[in-house]
Amino acid sequence: MELFVFLDTNILYHILHNTPRTKKTLILLEENPGDYVIDMVVHNEIIYTSTMHYLEHRHSIRGLTR
């Protein structure tokens, strides 16, 4: 039986950005090999969260205002 592993935004965030949980996340993925599945919503969320991460750390912008 083939194993599919769904990757959520939290997993990708910790891989892309060096956080205290990055090492645990990579170990979790190594211990659960298989085909990784990512939904299009997760693509959108990781683009948004990564953009916000960049703006907060590079330009000190917090949140979005109208």
Give the SSE order as H and E letters.
EHHEH
Tally of alpha and pi helices:
3
User: Structural class of the helix and strand makeup?
Assistant: mainly alpha
| Mean pLDDT reading | 86
Helix content range of the residues, please? 55-70%
Unreliable runs = none
Output the strand order for the largest sheet.
Answer: 1-2
Whole-number total of structural domains? 1
Residue fraction in strands: 5-15%
Count the strands?
A: 2
Structural Rg: 14 Å
Give the CA-CA distance, first to last residue: 50 Å
Shape, please? elongated
Major β-sheet profile: 2 strands, parallel
Summarize the structure.
The protein is mainly alpha-helical.
Give a topology summary.
Layout (H helix, E strand, L loop, with lengths): L3 E3 L2 H8 L5 H10 L3 E3 L2 H20 L7
Parallel strand pairs: 1-2
Helix pairs in contact: 1-2, 1-3
